[in-house]
Here is the input.
Amino acid sequence: MTDLPFEAEAKRRRTFAIISHPDAGKTTLTENLLFAAGAVRLAGQVRARGENRRTSSDWMKIERERGISVSSSVMTFEYRDCMVNLLDTPGHEDFSEDTYRTLTAADSAVMVLDAAKGIEPQTLKLFEVCRLRDIPILTFINKMDREAQDPLEILDEVANKLALDVVPMQWPAGSGARFSGIQNLTSDLFTPFAKGQDEPIAPMKLDDPALEAYLSDEVREELVDSIELADGGFPEFALQSYLEGHMTPVYFGSALRKFGVTELLDALVELAPAPSEVKADLGANEVLQQPGGKEVSGFVFKVQANMDPNHRDRIAFTRLCSGQFRRGMKLRTIAGKAMTVSSPLMFFAQDREIADTAYAGDVIGIPNHGVLRVGDSLSESGKLQYPGLPNFAPELLRRARPKDPMKAKHLRKALESLAEEGVTQLFKPMIGAEMILGAVGALQIEVTAERIATEYKLDVIFEPCPYSVARWITAKDDAALESFADRHKMQMAEDGDGAPVFLAKSSWEINYAQEKFPDISFTATRERR
Ligand code: G4P
Here is the structure.
């Protein structure tokens, strides 16, 4: 039986994210993946090196100044027979919540390691997020053109620290100044690395005399020895094990020198999974929603405000899970919000375009005025609900006030808008008119201040507040909740969705309250629905 056209379309989608520690080369790799796929003509079109470090995935001034990518987005490009959706995740740890949500929209991941540094703290954190859903991971060991650790050591480290089966698909010949190319372990062909030239050289057999120009006898011997040493030390590649998240095939290269990038892209379209079924609630039942299923459905994993300063709207990044989406369709949430999606956006390397059709695996940006929230599910029937995306309790709380006291109302609006993106949270104490911003890290507070200044033309002051911990509170019994809230009026607040939050001076105070009020649950995460 042949697939329905939209089943076939879903099957050629590859939706993935790159995970890495800052500085491992994610931006450079992104840029050169786009270049290798022909999605940009000059790698420098994505990032003009030197003068600034803006990439098409970096929107904000603070990112350019700091050279970090903090807001995530998506880039769609075609390669071979596939439509590839690359979800950009912020590398900085202060934005791990955003990254977590973005990873829920990815079907697989590419883990980039710096060949000199191996597994770094943020790699480990992000890997653990991938493991929660057993996302298949391809590993790319970058910066081989710099002095690297022994490949065997790096592979051992990946296997031990991540408890993964590792399978080298290639083996590097030397590193740093001696880096001479890569041996493909499946085809037995060697791709030479020509120093000082970006043009690729065709792969050849190790005994090809033409190789002498690129590979010294000494490095060749080392290569042959270490492949022999590695032989038998690693399992055979097993697609199923990779798809189940237990095995990672490993590739080597230099993103900066565009070396090994096409091979990685080939592996991605050949091995990485197309969208698969997703569990959803349908009223009282759980259903598996198939990518080829007829009903159009998806969920919002990110909301970005003010992408276009001329239009103060919000883009809800929606990962489609089934059906054939058509522009102008009416989609509904289970809470009964309905919207006609007349200008859905698709994001390409340099442009965004109105999408006429989209399929499972694709990410469409739905412009809206605050109707859609992170975690909302959308479907034609309005009856499907994908698992909610969690909100995490912030680790930093700051009182916000405008420099100009007349601007409090404006500031509240700005903070509410930014909180709807789900990156920071705004708590409104039950008593008084204070605004308390919750964030995971200090950088988020700085980014918020910067965005309020540029996007809302307001100067904001964030100052310490008496609280350091926020916990959502719930109870089986409404009366218990009310009685707790009543006795702690001064410390009660609401989050952006109106859920009750207890603000405490310390975690000790939370423990104390928990002992006194055993019927109340104090939680550090809340599922957004
Ligand atoms: P990130 O997004 O993971 O944070 O890393 P990014 O791509 O920005 O790369 C971090 C630094 O590592 C950059 O250098 C980049 O040029 C360099 N880099 C990335 N891939 C490679 C590689 O394969 N080989 C070598 N030698 N370097 C690589 P920088 O000095 O911080 O910035 P720039 O001035 O070069 O742009």
The chain has three domains: 18-68+107-271, 278-387, 391-528. Residues 20, 22-28, 49, 53, 91, 142-143, 145-146, 254-257 surround guanosine-5',3'-tetraphosphate (CB under 6 Å).
